[in-house]
Model the fold of this input.
Amino acid sequence: MRVWTQQIQLTIADVVTEAHDTHHPIDGNLDYEDQKPESRLRALAFCSARIPRFLGWFDHIVKHNPAGPRWLVGGKLSYADLSLFQLVEGLHYAFPNATQRALRGKPSLRDLHERVGALPRVAAYLASERRIPFNEAGIFRRYPELDRV
Done:
């Protein structure tokens, strides 16, 4: 079970990298403004194909968890559930239209996201000043012109 959880975590890391690369498709040292045409192309592919594919895979995992469709792996919360929650939050921030579209028909993933966010300690953190809000200096950045499918 540890190896499967790690595989899920590594896939989450892959999605985070792909989200980042939508605004830095050529070079992470170049500003977004210096690679806008390439960013538009990268974001189009990410929003139209990659987000739905990844979220579909996560939804499938939740639905087919042998312990039941409550968590990603086994019968209790894992770090992969927390990471997936943060990934979905980041995608909602950076690509709200594409993410909303990709989550349609994926009730298991939507339910997992809501369940993790409602956990008392997670909810307390989300409401606290300790949580750094998403912004245009982080990995998940909202550039409305990139959220087109």
Notes: The mean pLDDT is 96. The chain is about 60% helix and 0% strand.
